């Protein structure tokens, strides 16, 4: 039996919020498509108070930004990028071109070809998401993408509005070919649609707020995207082997992302459930980001108590959360049996923040139950697998042609059938039986 000690606000309220965002984004993208750079500049001035001569940073601009980053911070960025790069390279090595002779004289194969150009969006509103530069730019670079444009919103400082130094440093060290100080709908819209000053890309990747996510959704088809991303989601699956402090800390650590970030605990211990709720209330009194985290917890937090591990698994599968942290005495059992999650974090020694920032796996992951049909961003997302075929002999062309002709006529495609028949007639003259088979 399943008991819910805390529930989230109704879905209908979320749908109303989504509808408002959809209308705003649609109008903004139409404006960019119509007026290009002028629309982009107006939006940047309106939302960020920023309208430089050029949104693209020069080499000098990049050097100045990097000079504002502490030496230790640069070392940490390099360390994190090394972890992401190493894992991405191992993933890339797992993607092999193949060529096989499937029957005598018939050669089939596929080639893994990188996307030509990618636009990487790095959020920089309330929090400068430095790690997103590693996840998108480094991974695209390892995949072999020829042109990588990276962009992030400018930063408001006491000295005025300027590019965010740590993000610029991360983009540069990751290998971005172009760096822009531009945020929001105007950034992803400009990269996807193209303007006089920003060349269009073939693919958009990277997380963002609700407006950026909706812009990517509306632009999908015109360009490729990594996935449809929503607010950060965290699910903890735990039993009595851990305590309320650990669960509460890990839930609030992700709830601080934004006021609409789901944070859910599934457990088979009512004692742990109540201890976690109590600890969350305590932590919200002292957490510096409590204003955001408390709203997220109040509206989107849930605590679900199950009787068995099987029930815990079933609930987790239905939720299909972006991040799933498993802290039980059956972690390997969950690894073997779970099928719907963005990323798994197994055992109390790891946590979502490790994956978000430094351990090497990618933090751009499916949300809103998209884990039912897709994984997250990885080097393979930047790779297109293209097939090719070659028929080596007259006999093979004649044999395949006979089957193809009959199957085309079965569907009523006479022209298709004739494509096969002409090969049968031309290459089957020495094989009369094959020629008759296609008649």
Which value, in Å, is the CA radius of gyration?
26 Å
Shape: globular
Q: Low-confidence parts lasting 5 or more residues at pLDDT below 50?
A: 432-439
Count of individual beta strands:
16
Q: What kind of sheet is the major sheet? A: 6 strands, mixed
Distinct helical segment count? 17
Helical content (DSSP H or I, runs of 4+): 40-55%
Structural class call reads alpha/beta
How big a fraction of the residues is strand? 15-25%
| Strands ordered across the widest β-sheet | 1-13-12-11-14-15
Mean pLDDT across the residues is 94
Note the gap between the termini: 66 Å
Which characteristics define this entry?
439 residues; alpha/beta; 6-stranded mixed beta sheet; 5-stranded parallel beta sheet; 17 helices; globular; disordered C terminus
Describe the structure.
The chain has 439 residues and is α/β, with parallel strands linked by helices. The protein contains 17 helices and 16 strands. It has helices at 11-35, 37-48, 59-67, 71-94, 130-143, 165-174, 184-193, 210-219, 244-255, 270-283, 290-300, 309-319, 331-337, 352-357, 394-411, 414-427, 432-437, and strands at residues 3-6, 98-103, 106-114, 117-121, 147-152, 155-157, 160-162, 178-181, 203-205, 224-225, 234-238, 263-267, 301-305, 323-327, 343-346, 383-391. The strands form 4 sheets. Strands 1-13-12-11-14-15 form a 6-stranded mixed β-sheet, with helices on both faces. A 5-stranded parallel β-sheet has the order 8-5-4-9-10, with helices on both faces. Helix 8 (210-219) links the parallel strand 9 (203-205) and strand 10. The chain is globular. It starts with a strand and ends with a helix. Mean pLDDT is 94; it is low at 432-439.
């Amino acid at each position: 039996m399943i008991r819910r000690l805390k529930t989230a606000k109704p879905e209908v309220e979320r749908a109303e919020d989504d509808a408002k965002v959809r209308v705003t984004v649609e109008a903004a993208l139409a404006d960019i498509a119509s007026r290009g750079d002028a629309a982009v500049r107006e939006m940047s001035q309106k939302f960020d108070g920023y309208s430089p001569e050029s949104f693209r940073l020069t080499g000098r601009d990049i050097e100045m930004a990097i000079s504002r980053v502490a030496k230790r911070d640069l070392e940490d960025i390099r360390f994190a990028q090394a972890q992401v790069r190493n894992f991405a390279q191992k993933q890339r090595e797992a993607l092999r071109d193949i060529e096989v002779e499937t029957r005598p004289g018939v050669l089939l194969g596929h080639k893994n070809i990188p996307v030509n150009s990618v636009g990487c969006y790095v959020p920089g509103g309330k929090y400068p998401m430095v790690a997103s530069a590693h996840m998108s730019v480094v991974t695209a670079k390892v995949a072999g993408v020829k042109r990588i444009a990276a962009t992030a919103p400018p930063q408001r400082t006491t000295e005025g509005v300027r590019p965010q130094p740590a993000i610029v440093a991360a983009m540069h060290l990751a290998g971005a070919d172009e760096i822009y100080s531009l945020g929001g709908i105007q950034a992803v819209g400009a990269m996807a649609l193209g303007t006089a000053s920003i060349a269009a890309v073939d693919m958009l990747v990277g997380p963002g707020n609700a407006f950026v996510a909706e812009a990517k959704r509306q632009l999908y088809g015109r360009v490729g995207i990594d996935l449809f991303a929503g607010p950060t989601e965290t699910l903890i699956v735990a039993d009595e082997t851990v305590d309320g402090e650990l669960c509460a800390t890990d839930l609030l650590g992700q709830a601080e992302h934004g006021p609409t970030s789901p944070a859910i605990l599934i457990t088979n211990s009512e004692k742990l459930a109540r201890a976690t709720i109590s600890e969350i209330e305590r932590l919200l009194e002292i957490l510096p980001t409590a204003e955001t985290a408390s709203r997220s917890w109040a509206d989107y937090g849930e605590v679900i108590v199950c009787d068995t591990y099987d029930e815990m698994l079933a609930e987790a599968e239905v939720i299909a959360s972006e991040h799933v942290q498993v802290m039980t005495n059956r972690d390997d059992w969950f690894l073997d049996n779970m099928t719907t999650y963005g990323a798994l974090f197994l055992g109390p020694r790891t946590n979502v923040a490790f994956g978000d920032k430094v351990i090497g796996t990618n933090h751009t992951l499916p949300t809103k139950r998209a884990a039912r049909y897709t994984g997250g961003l990885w080097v393979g997302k930047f790779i297109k697998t293209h097939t090719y075929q070659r028929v080596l002999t007259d006999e093979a062309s004649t044999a395949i042609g006979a089957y193809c002709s009959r199957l085309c006529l079965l569907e009523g495609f006479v022209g298709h059938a004739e494509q096969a028949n002409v090969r049968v007639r031309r290459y089957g003259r020495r094989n009369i039986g094959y020629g008759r088979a296609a008649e």
